[in-house]
Predict the structure.
Amino acid sequence: MRRAELTAHAIALGLLVLAPWWLSPYDLSLLGRFLAMSILALGLTIVWGWSGLLSLGQGVFFGLGAYALAMNLKLAALAPGDLPDFMVWSGFSRLPWWWAPFRHPLVALAAVVLVPAAVAAAFGWLVFHRRVRGVYFALLTQALALAFSTFLVSQQAYTGGFSGLTNFGPLFGVQLADQKGQTALYGVTLVLLTASYALATWLSKSHFGRLLVAIRDGENRVRFLGYNAAPYKVAAFTLAAAFAGLAGALYVAQVGVISPDMVGVVPSIEMLIWVAVGGRESLAGAVLGCLLVNFGKDWVSSAMPSLWLFVMGGLFVLVVTVLPRGIGQLVSVRVPRRRPAEVAPAAQELAGQ
Amino acid sequence: MNQPLLQIEHLTVRFDAFTAIDDLSLTVPARSVRVLIGPNGAGKSTLLDAIIGRVRPAAGRIVFKGRDLTHLPEHRIVRAGICRKFQAPGLLDSLTVHDNLVVAEARSRRWPALLRTQPTAAQAGRIDGILATVGLTAERHRPAGRLAHGQKQWLEIGMVVASGAELLLLDEPAAGMSLGEREQTADLLQRLADRHSLLVIDHDMAFVERLGAPVSVLHVGRLLKEGSLQDVRQDPQVRAVYLGRVDECEYDYA
């Protein structure tokens, strides 16, 4: 990273670390949930920006992570032996077997990452080994998003149906809705976002990151250079799903509710807009785009609730036509234009490059 | 070296009712250059497609160093030692010239390379050598998409070399080049022939002449004639085929 970029990153991180001291609790809670969603945006940069896989189903993985943690939090609110209210209404007398493991917070936390990753790996393996590409891939992921939200609504006895899961109990003895709990969650979110960002930055400089761009630029060329492209695409898609699951869990812990309308087709498209606004190849752009669009949405929605969808559509048209590389054009931590170290890498570092 | 590097045995490729390659047999010895010529639709590119697994033959075998490649997946054929340059340059446009070669380099395909941020010293040395061979050392940091047309062709030849393949299939490597560039390309291919076998498709007779290699003439999916360019040029059947007077000659397929 160049020195100017490092400085910009350090300033941004410093501002975020100090945010609990200079933001109102309301603004901090907004910032916290948007930072959580930024982790998903990083995953979209990897899968869409670098690998060229237009996923219209990222809400599914966000939802899987969110529901995994929400199941634990829902059970934590109940006395031992009690069932969630929607199960009681459906006449259940025992907890379904697949709910039971989520009593343990560690199981739920592992599931937050592992379940979306496993679903994405299985889906990706089927699709990429069959060489489904381009618009067909996008349509399949959209079908996945539609099927997932429909499933959640229709299986009310197991999922809470249309109203989803809410009224949560404590996690590791901490009441998440408290001021203290919220500040702690903000800290955890910031740490995990920083870690995800660091991981993605390193990947962008690795041969794996270079291969993803290569596959996007010319999958056939890469195949006829002796690579089987499918496993790399599966890996990228799986990693992005794990990021989305993590984002979903951090989101639900802060917001206190998850429902099917947060994980379906429309939210999945909105996620793409964050990344498109930020510039789809840029990690910094993904985070900035996510924050800008979501703060904008909060501002527009509170001023005039019916206006948001039009603003969102207009934004998308604007970005596609005028700023195809998004506002990331101004920030630039992009994958492709890297300088390979030449004769004297140490000298380049000394020169501050 | 008795065994030929590549043996094509009774190969037939069909697209529905159309037979693009018809019971074709051909051998390529090690460390040799062979040029494929023939009118449009003769099946030259389809033959290369069949060798690299892009199309699957209806009958026949493709044997490379004694190993039957006919039903291997594409990437395994490359790993066995055959790599192809396509007619329209197929580069990784947003990567630099250098990074195109890193992706192509044989050792990048092994999994420990995946998480490395820089090529190893051995890889870097090979890549520098290839850059010098194809004359792109000064362009190494440019995105491949911004190269001039001739440079793109050279870069892709460099990538095919970097893949570590013994047999290079070059589909019109000099297409769209200026006269001077074509001569440079012919000289480049001759240098590569020290270490590789080349199977080259081209239409330009001056280029083929400069290569100075034996020529195989394809016509309607069959081998019409093999020999030096001089012999082939004199051949009445070949002349008839190129001039479109097919009906005037009797077929006698080699």
